[in-house]
């Protein structure tokens, strides 16, 4: 089996942009140890299929756990090649998706759920605290619906941060199953940040989370009140997924908000994996003190 090098193809403008705006360090995954920058043409980490720590000819999911203490360094040496996780074609298809599938699946859900909640609230029968006492029950009118959606978007922004920081960037140590879980959830994305089929959340696992919150919301709140918040949460999620895809493949105009977020996310991938957990916003990085260092002296 001959060695194979995977360089930077024309599609990943992201890394070219990163190398023009961020200083390289000797220990950086994009240092010349894995591919020198020659004539302004940067390269991602090369893959020698004979010497690499995993067998790229086989699904990676059940291999990465065996890397143990070498996993963290390996997973943060990004390559420009697709990743296969499962042997089963069915399981593999469930683990990836294209960006527009997110819109095709979740926009109808948003419209249907939103319309149902709005028309039900318009009947004037929904009340807060009515299960405790009718004396202090607060009627919830249809005018509350947009505010509840905004609340849902806000709650999602916090969940986005917490999930990214504490679940996606958990420390798996040298434990086989934690490493496997980490790679399944997020490590694969850091290993192959330009795999377009793995930049958004596949609809099958996303549906499991949706049904969990769909049945939880009416338990915590009056049904339409809780589902209105959930509707906003789904809107926030779709915005997040589309923005994440755009930050990897889009070319926002210099000086714009999205341009700043793109630089920020690039630095998270290639320089500061333990900071910069906000994707659609840097808002929560501030109170949780996880702004990327040089961003501490800047404002949005």
From TrEMBL:
Domain Fatty acid hydroxylase: from-to ranges: 150-290
Transmembrane segments: 99-123, 143-163, 199-221, 227-247
Statement: the UniProt record of this protein carries the keyword Oxidoreductase: yes
Principal localisation: endoplasmic reticulum
Topology versus the membrane: Multi-pass membrane protein
GO biological process: fatty acid biosynthetic process
Highest taxon of source: Eukaryota
Name of this chain's protein: Fatty acid 2-hydroxylase
Swiss-Prot/TrEMBL keywords: Endoplasmic reticulum, Fatty acid biosynthesis, Fatty acid metabolism, Lipid biosynthesis, Lipid metabolism, Membrane, Metal-binding, Oxidoreductase, Transmembrane, Transmembrane helix, Zinc
Organism name: Crotalus adamanteus (Eastern diamondback rattlesnake)
